Amino acid sequence: IPEGSSDADLRQLRIETLIVAGQIELAKAELELVRNQPNLRLAGTALDLALEQWGAAEILSLLDRRAKEDRPGETCEMRLACLLLLGRTSDAAAMVDLDHHISETMLAPPPDWEQARFIEALRTDTAQLEGFERDPAHYSTVGGQQSFCEPSNSPVAMNALVDQFRYAVERYWEALPADDPIRAGRPDNPDLDVWAVALDRSGYHRHHIHAGAWLSGVYYLASTQAGHDAGALRIGLPRYKSETMPWNIRSIVPKPGKLVLFPSFLRHDTLPHPADQPRVSISFDVVPSPVQAG
After folding, report:
1. Alpha-carbon separation of residue 51 from 38, 140, 292 (angstroms)
2. Which DSSP string do the residues of 125-186 spell out, in sequence order?
3. Quick one: which of 99, 130, 156, 199 could link to 144 by a disulfide (CB 3.0–4.6 Å)?
4. What is the pLDDT of residues 204-234, one digit of tens each?
5. Is the distance from CB of 257 to CB of 218 less than 8 angstroms?
6. Using 50, 70 and 90 to split pLDDT, how confident is the model at 3?
7. Dihedral sign of CA atoms 1, 208, 283, 188 in order
8. Can you give the pTM of this predicted structure?
9. Which residues face 284 on adjacent strands?
10. In degrees rounded to 5, what are phi and psi of residue 229?
């Protein structure tokens, strides 16, 4: 069980465990205990069962009463699943407008930094972060290491990069049209969660979303030139392979200095990293501040 799990998280885990065990009637009974609760946690098979039991329209009405600071990534994925089931493809397409909602740029270095020197300083800073864990449980990393230490006390280069992230997020938000559904979901008092990942040869990320975040980003420090899609980040995946989605998957090849921003509810993964040199990246989520969320 992940540390810090809420009662709602534990309820969802219990429902999913009952479904896996074939105890469907017990799972349905457990699900009824959270009916009409806007803060319910539903993902994976628990969401599928709720859609079957309650219908997409009822779940949408619950989401309309849910605070936007309450796990925005999860909320949006639930809303998207409901819209698709109801045949509201135009509303779903407005949420998953990959051409406008994915930003892919070469991030300029801070003032007084030259790009190559900035990248090298960040690689050094990243290697010195504490708390790296290999294939951490409950996370998407496979065949690599992930650091959960927020670099608030890190050297100058890392802190400068986080400032660049904040600036890029503001520019992203300002560029969205006033009626864009992604713009409306921005936390009123946003904060950043930052972490680093180093994938070894054949390492990858399983498909996932960032349930507690509004916007996610990844900045690449090291990659590989082997193959046109080697180690690529893929955004816009369906929840299940059998699903056909009314949009195309976006594939982005890592390149040192590249920053990618995308809504956190968009399901994504990476292709296996093919080189001996680690694929190093610094990622972040835009989340409601602890005071706001609490």
Report:
1. 15, 25, 30
2. HHHT-S-EEES-TTSSEEEEEEE----TT--HHHHHHHHHHHHHHHHHHHHS-TT-HHHHTS
3. 199
4. 999 999 999 999 999 999 876 655 677 899 9
5. no
6. low
7. negative
8. 0.89
9. 194, 217
10. -125, 25
